[in-house]
Amino acid sequence: MTSLDHEEVLVRRGPRSGLYSIIAVHSTARGPSLGGCRVLRYDDHRLALRDALRLSRAMTWKSAVAGLRLGGGKGVLACRDPARLTGRARRDALIDFGEAVEQLDGRYITAEDVGTSARDIATIASATSHVTGLSRARGGSGDPSPWTALGVFETIRASVERTFGSPDLRGRSVALIGLGHVGLPLARLLAKAGAKLLVADIDRARKADATALGARWVGGDKAFSSPVDVLAPCALGGILDHDSVELVQAPVIAGAANNQLADDHVAGLLADRGILWAPDFVANAGGIVNISVELRSEGYDPKVARALVRGIGDTMRRVYDDADRAGVTPLAAAMALAHRRVADGVSSPV
Ligand code: NAI
Question: What's the alpha-carbon Rg for the chain, to the nearest Å?
């Protein structure tokens, strides 16, 4: 069951497209709610609503732990067949969504997400100014993925430091699963830092990129259970469950994939096995941290973004310290930090 602890939820049928825009504003305690717009296939509008509720809540915790003056929101454009939502029909649906965003008067700011592109965001921007993540050419912060990769890279350094005593990655082995928009720039950073890479991806077309970096190309199962120093999941969520954690040999798991744990109990199983797991929503906040720089009155500056995204390493160190002090898992410590910051609103220190 999806419980409701949100500030507001807007459900609006688009006058042009007939498609429903669902926007969930979970919290604006720390600032306007920000979260992407998904265009996905939903066979049932209840599932679309549930996604918006669940994902907007997750955005609240992610932005709070990252110390951003932002709340959590999410938009869903519920659609039966996204592949056929093209041309005029797509434009109509996106403008309808933009009008729904505009109705919230800045309490929700939208961005790119699963099923939307930078071009789609530009279309939405013709109906509302509450948009982030436009291309650099249009004054926005551009593609978030390399920033997500940088935040994960700093997370890996902080986690390696915690486990081995130094953040130096020279000679450290990393098994990376998913060489996509985040995985590839992450692999480049790791290779440059001197790490030895094992890479797995279900798409064999990625092999050329892996070998160009000097990485060993392996199957997904092999990457998952190899005796490496770090396992970096950068593909799909749910990869760590009650059974699969038994197979992990890496003492550190730190990657970009969202919702890596099948359920929260898995955090305890990992801790019991002596595996340090970097909470995914802390590790993969680089994209939203970069976007937040767009909202400064001075405008977007990549140098500022770089410094802030690099700070994710220190956020992770703090989470690990809190966890040690309280005798809880890093997941519990990160959630406690997020809840404290939301309860305190904008008055809490970042
Ligand atoms: P992507 O779709 O560009 O890359 C995912 C890669 O994983 C693809 O190359 C795909 O072939 C591969 N893959 C899929 N299933 C696999 C499997 N079972 N085994 C091995 N490889 C598999 O996605 P992107 O943008 O790189 O995101 C990766 C993860 O990071 C996702 O979970 C996403 O939700 C999360 N994330 C991404 C952010 C971003 O800025 N792009 C921000 C925050 C989280």
Answer: 20
Backbone angles phi, psi at 305, to 5 degrees: -60, -45
Atom number, ligand 1, closest to the C-alpha of residue 259: 32
Catalytic residues: 74
Nearest residue to 180 via CA among 143, 245, 235: 235
Local structure of residue 215 (DSSP, 8 states): P
Substitution site in 152, 225, 240, 258 for ligand 1 pocket (most atoms within 8 Å of beta carbon): 258
Strand partners, 262: none
Is residue 85 within 8 A of residue 115, CB to CB? The reply is no
Q: What is the mean pLDDT of the chain?
A: 95
Which residue's CA lies nearest to atom 14 of ligand 1? 235
- Which residue reads 């309808």 in tokens? 96
In the predicted structure, residue 1 carries a pLDDT above the cut 60:
no
User: Please, which residues bridge with residue 79 across strands?
Assistant: 41
Label residue 103 exposed, middle or buried (CB < 10 Å: 0-12, 13-18, 19+).
middle
Report CA torsion sign: 273, 278, 281, 287.
negative
Q: How many other CB atoms are there within 10 angstroms of residue 47's CB atom?
A: 14
Residues 343-347 have a mean pLDDT of 81
26 and 8 in contact (C-beta within 8 Å)?
A: no
Does residue 180 line the site of ligand 1, with CB under 6 A? yes
Which amino acid is located at 100 in the chain?
A
Predicted confidence band at 315 (pLDDT cuts at 50, 70, 90)? very high
**The ligand 1 atom nearest the CA atom of 147:** 40
Report the first-to-last Cα separation within the chain, whole angstroms.
33
Q: Is the pTM of this model over 0.90?
A: yes
CA distance 127 to 101: 8
User: Residue 258: CB within 6 Å of ligand 1?
Assistant: yes
